[in-house]
Amino acid sequence: MNIDNINLGYFQGDHSSTCSYCHKGKSYSQGFSTNKLYPSTYQSMMDRGWRRCGTYYYKYNFAQNCCLSYTIRANALLSQQKKGQRKIAKTFLKVVQSDLLKNKVESLKPAIQQISKNLKQQQEQKQLNKQPQQLKQKVEPKQKIVVEEKQKPHKVSEEIVQSLKLQFQQFQELIAQNIPEVIQLFKEYFDSKGFKIDEVQSIFQVNLNIDTVQIFPSKVNSKGDYYSNFMMLIYGLNKKLLFQDFPVNKFALLIIPFVQKYFISNQFLFVQEPTGFLSVFTKENQQKADVHLMQIEKQLVQEKQKIIIEQNLVNQQKQNIKLIDTETFKSNQFQIGNMKVLLKPAECTEENFKLYQSYCKEIHGSTKESKDGYSSFLCEQGLDQKKFIQSQIDKSKILFMGCFHMRYYLGDVLVAIGVVDITETAMSSVYFFYDPIFEEFNFGTFGALVEIEYVKLMNQHFPDFKYYYLGFYLQNTNKMSYKGDFEPCELLCPETYTWVELTKELRAEIDRRQALAVNQRQLRISKQNVGVIDDMKINDKSFYGSVQVSMKGKVMKLSALNFNMNKLNNYLDNAYSRFGRQLMEKLIFEL
């Protein structure tokens, strides 16, 4: 059988079986076996919902299946490790970078157990070191409150209250006259929210009812004679429309320069507090006001530095953890700490079969695996192995395509295998298994992160090679829903065959549809104005005659055969609805 040859007899109709995910309902699929396909053909098939298992290729009938399933992929160039994934990556790197694994060890299991024990002790010590600081943070505010409560505030005279309210009326007018300047103080925030400055200026409110302004006697002598909620009320006027997720303390910090510039009076001195309150000093306490303002400015600098440090920490945390040693990276081998990874054509050996057996027994509780079953499942060369691409950027770089085993070694010991398919534009994850001694370290997730990073590194030489396919995404089962954690990711719409980002909204919609009866579900998830690609109502079967067929080793167009087309229409219609016209015209169907 030649490459890209498919027996038309497979397309008689769907095959049904008990769903292997929920084990309750029915699963329907169309499939065929063939010797080999070109990687480019399989890529086109994956983009229409097909998957491979050995040399058997199958596609679900999305309209009839009990569990909603979607082909899922991630753009490796945009992939952002989540917090939990970064934690897994950091921990696993500590394991494979351990000094205990630098040299050859007689037995790997005791070494891994000792490394695990060491890591747990380090984590416990880290938690203990945090405790005194946490206690200190809890005690300090209580002490502060006690000190403040000891101050005996005097009453604010009516004369002072009226005088200050008059000042606040004037300040209100000043803010109204300088709204553009106020808005500029928050420009970075408004830009991040997508607000246009012109719109913000028209929305910003300053019309306070002055009677709502409160003036209190100061509880702390160094912080003025009085304090007021004037600026907090200005903030409150605008919170709902402009500052909904912008806290008052940040508002106060940014408004300080404006207050100190414009809030000038012959009778009082005004200092904006970072808490949001406005401190008021009488002229007699000029020196005290200057000292306090210096403290505020110093605090402002510290707060800005703190914000920068916190932002840097957040950015560091959000940055993907680098796993592969780029200095020694090659397309067919690379290092991760003391671990060596080799990319080899998929094959069944005694070494990798024993690893697979151990994985199935310890992780899944299964002892029925046969070598023939393993070989047909994960070792078949279902794609043409002779295909490769030479980089136009660096002629020494080669992208080999086909079915591969990504083998992970510690010393001479094989500890994991990632089974992958490689095409011109993508790596497709088929399966991953590992030595059970690594179970606590989430080797499966780590392996997926390695494969994504591999795609990124290869993309530097092959710009079209950028996608990572994870098979099918089923949201109603933990066994398959974890694939949505490799963000940002996309689902293939089963009607339009366009890619749709997996958002919170789409997740909620999938949950809603899953709860409906199968015949009440809507399939389309794409909102693009694209027609249903496989709608057979158009009855466009004119191209059937140009479909290539093979008889007794001879390839010709179907129209050249003296066949009763009506007898073949059912098979051709089924093939058309699964492949689409473009792929059908490329394939060769055996009769």
TrEMBL record:
GO MF, one term, reads: arginyl-tRNA--protein transferase activity
GO BP: proteasomal protein catabolic process
Which N-terminal residues, if any, form the signal peptide?
A: none
| Catalyzed reactions per annotation | an N-terminal L-alpha-aminoacyl-[protein] + L-arginyl-tRNA(Arg) = an N-terminal L-arginyl-L-aminoacyl-[protein] + tRNA(Arg) + H(+)
What is any one of the record's Gene Ontology cellular component terms?
cytoplasm
N-end rule aminoacyl transferase C-terminal domain residues are: 351-493
Q: Taking every annotated instance into account, which residue ranges of this chain make up the domain N-end aminoacyl transferase N-terminal?
A: 17-87
Entries under InterPro entries matching the protein: Arg-tRNA-P_Trfase_1_euk, N-end_Aminoacyl_Trfase, N-end_Aminoacyl_Trfase_C, N-end_Aminoacyl_Trfase_N
According to the UniProt entry, what is the EC number of this protein? 2.3.2.8
Entry-linked Pfam families: ATE_C (PF04377), ATE_N (PF04376)
Asked if Kinase is a keyword of the record, the answer is: no
> Sorted alphabetically, which keywords does the UniProt record give?
Acyltransferase, Transferase, Ubl conjugation pathway
Which chain positions lie within coiled-coil regions? none
- Function as written in the Swiss-Prot or TrEMBL entry: Involved in the post-translational conjugation of arginine to the N-terminal aspartate or glutamate of a protein. This arginylation is required for degradation of the protein via the ubiquitin pathway.
Which family does the entry's similarity section mention? Belongs to the R-transferase family.
Q: What is this protein called in UniProt?
A: Arginyl-tRNA--protein transferase 1
Per the UniProt record, the source organism is: Paramecium tetraurelia
